[in-house]
Design goal:
By secondary structure, this protein is of the alpha+beta class. 25% of the residues lie in helices and 28% in strands. The chain has helices at residues 7-35, 116-121, 140-144; strands at 37-43, 59-63, 69-71, 76-82, 85-92, 98-104, 111-115, 127-129. Strand 2 and strand 3 form a beta hairpin.
Length: 163
């Protein structure tokens, strides 16, 4: 014998199922945001345009209270972090001055450059997207031939005339 389920019970079950789906989607989103990894390049160089020359001689830099690393003018180190918001602590080894700044990382970027002189001076933005110098956008001719097979030792063939 089949039991009939009244309308109120069906609506209640449907509401519970929808609520569970929403909670599950929220947990997935939360774990994605909190678990997103970033590579930070900590840079202690003067700015290229000369507007800021505060690269201090001998810094101890730590992120989120982790192990401190020594940085001298012109040095760069790379740290891997998880999450969007971090505290960068910079301590001058000679004078003992300590500066702490909170940085927020963009969600869509994996590799970022953090400028120590900008953090110390409080200049925004201290965090920038890192673009390697030797990586250039493809030229138009390279973009057109993107689907062709190439190898390092390949010799380009002359196009064959079609009869």
């Amino acid at each position: 014998m089949k039991q009939s389920v009244d309308t109120k019970t069906m609506i209640r079950r449907l509401a519970i199922r929808l609520a569970l789906v929403v909670v599950y989607a929220g947990l997935v989103l939360l774990t994605f945001v909190l678990g997103k990894g970033h590579s930070l390049i900590i840079d202690n160089k003067d700015l290229a345009d000369g507007s800021l020359t505060a690269a201090m001689d001998g810094n101890m830099v730590s992120i989120d209270g982790g192990e401190a690393s020594e940085l001298y003018p012109g040095d760069r180190i790379m740290e891997t972090v998880k999450g969007q918001s971090h505290t960068v602590a910079i301590e001058d080894m000679s004078g003992g001055n300590r500066v702490e700044r909170r940085i927020t990382l963009p969600l869509g970027q994996d590799m970022l450059l953090v400028s120590i002189p900008k953090l110390i001076a409080g200049v925004a933005p201290a965090v920038e997207v890192f673009v390697p110098v030797n990586v250039a956008p493809p030229s138009e001719s390279e973009a057109e031939s993107k689907n062709e097979f190439t190898s390092p030792d390949a010799v380009p063939l002359e196009p064959q005339p079609t009869p």
